[in-house]
Amino acid sequence: MMDQSDTPVSGGLPSRAGQLKVAAPGQARTIDARSLFGDAQVVLIEYRGECYQLRQTRNGKLILTK
Length: 66
Known about the structure:
By secondary structure, the protein is mainly beta. The chain has 2 domains: about 30 residues, no CATH class; about 35 residues, Complement Module, domain 1, CATH 2.10.70.10. The chain is built from 1 helix and 5 strands. A 3-stranded antiparallel beta sheet has the order 3-4-5, with no helix packed on it. A hairpin with a 5-residue loop joins strand 4 and strand 5. It is globular and about 35 Å long. The two termini are about 20 Å apart. The N terminus is likely disordered.
């Protein structure tokens, strides 16, 4: 399901050099992880009828599992 929320928010992706690399419209969307997680350590993401678990580690990394 595509709607207006599927359009890019940031307009680009960070490159390895730390510069902003411009993404084509509709290709990338930046979401601040704090807005996803809030106070939680785990977020459940439903995608194409499947449920995925995105969790934060103690080391500040993200792990996505099915």
